[in-house]
Amino acid sequence: MTGRFITLEGGEGAGKSTVLDAVRERLAARGIDVVVTREPGGTPFAEAVRALVLDPARGEMCPESELLLMFAARAQHVREIIQPALASGRWVLSDRYTDASYAYQGGGRGQPVERIAALESWAAPVRPDLTLLLDLPVADGLARAGARGAADRIEREALDFFERVRAAYRARAAAEPVRFRVVDSSQPIGTVREAVGTVLDEWLDGIGAAE
Ligand code: Z5A
Questions:
Q1: Which atom of ligand 1 sits closest to the CA of residue 10?
Q2: DSSP H or E stretch at residue 38
Q3: Which terminus of the chain has a lower count of CB atoms within 10 Å, N or C?
Q4: Which atom of ligand 1 is nearest to the CA of 8?
Q5: Mean pLDDT, consecutive 10-residue segments, the chain of 211 residues?
Q6: How would CATH label the architecture of 5-207?
């Protein structure tokens, strides 16, 4: 038996960290054992890459370097955490995965989709079963993220960068309506958590997951 793979995606301040616990609780209520992880990161090596790639003090980083670093971290994460967990029947919940590279490095930085797809099929061949996209207007998300403290290297980008990121996420969700569920995360936290819970319950019922 293999487990299921769920990913959480969204722009800045979308509330992924905030709804992560709601998802975990919902799965636990059905007796589903879930490994919670994140990208970039999830292993000591990948967390070191995360620190490097988000550090604003490192100077110039060209889009090609950024894309390759995201996939270097991901390749390790997939082999060390995601694949072994799924193979042993455990479920995996990841705060971001490959869709983030299509949105940020593709939409945001303008890296060609075919290049990202080639890296994906080589370095990260595991596909999510369900992707929850938390969507809200860019300005609202940036205001939330800004209230949280010092911005990392990517958070320092201009508004139009994040508009392209959002557009890329929405385009991916529209192109893959079976895998994606889009939740309006501009609503109050309690409403977003409830909406995520409802979407998740529907999906779990649909695949016949235990009650
Ligand atoms: N990145 C990339 O470029 N390519 C890749 O392939 C991958 C990642 C995998 C780090 O990701 C960065 O890496 C990220 C994309 C890039 N870009 N940057 N910068 P991350 O996911 O670790 O970090 P993040 O995007 O900065 O996450 P975030 O801003 O923390 O977003 P969030 O987790 O979705 O939000 P949150 O922490 O749950 O909420 C943010 C604040 O808003 C917090 O104070 C909450 O209390 C508040 N909040 C949340 N929901 C609400 C609602 N509904 N109402 C009011 N306030 C709310």
A1: 34
A2: strand 34-38
A3: N
A4: 34
A5: 91 93 93 96 98 93 98 98 96 98 98 98 98 98 85 92 98 98 97 96 89 56
A6: 3-Layer(aba) Sandwich (3.40)
